[in-house]
Design a protein that fits this description.
Length: 219
């Protein structure tokens, strides 16, 4: 039987290779490794170990489900509607990086997408949410998302971003939507990586970031 270190190394190596490859779909071996590493988790009760979960995490591999993503979480063509629960129009964008950010209080749980318009204007999508650890499942987080926000990134300002997205000059950049009540199970957790499986079937392999969180001051 392979050790935790061996399984983890093969998983991360395969994800790295997939993210730079032109293969249209992830290799089946990735799912095998994700299944294999779960029972080896050093922290099997993430919902009871919040300090080990909160912070800013970067998606190394993100498979959102049929029709949404083939698995890559970097430099993928997408749309603003797809990344914002359809709160914003169906405008083509290019995903640069996907983050997940949370804190202990007030239990914020934000999904963050760094993107570029097709003209190269950088921006950030923040899907604002909050979480509650499940009382009966030590791996499960109950999550409610309630607003989508688009913000400029880098040296651009709001006017640049609106223009890059084809918005009117006075278009609002934050929109509330009917709360989406979901859950996410942290099926593997150590001090470097985390694997979540969402209630809609999404699979996420994340790495802890050392940089400050982008979204937590904007709730």
């Amino acid at each position: 039987m392979a050790s935790l270190g061996e399984v983890k190394q093969e998983l991360l190596t395969m994800i790295d290779a997939f993210n730079v490859d032109e293969a249209p779909t992830p290799p089946a071996r990735l799912d095998v490794l994700i299944d294999a590493i779960q029972p080896l988790s050093p922290i099997p009760d993430a919902a009871h170990q919040l300090q080990s979960v909160v912070g800013s995490w970067s998606n190394l591999y993100a498979r959102f489900g049929v029709g949404h993503s083939k698995g890559k979480s970097h430099r993928e063509e997408s749309s603003l509607a797809l990344q914002t629960f359809k709160a914003f129009p169906d405008i083509p964008i290019r995903v640069v990086e996907i983050l997940q950010e949370s804190d202990l209080e007030p239990r914020t749980y934000n999904n963050v997408v760094l993107f570029e318009t097709l003209a190269g204007v950088p921006g950030v999508v923040i899907i604002h949410g909050h979480y509650q650890p499940d009382d009966e499942d030590a791996r499960r987080f109950r999550v409610v998302f309630y607003a989508a926000e688009v913000r400029p990134w880098g040296d651009v300002d709001e006017a640049d971003l609106r223009a890059g997205l084809g918005f009117d000059a006075d278009a609002v950049l934050r929109r509330e939507f009917k709360p989406a009540k979901l859950y996410s199970d942290v099926v593997y957790l150590d001090d470097q990586i985390r694997i979540n499986i969402g209630g809609m079937g999404g699979v996420y392999v994340l790495a802890r970031r050392t940089e400050p969180a982008i979204s937590l001051s904007y709730n």
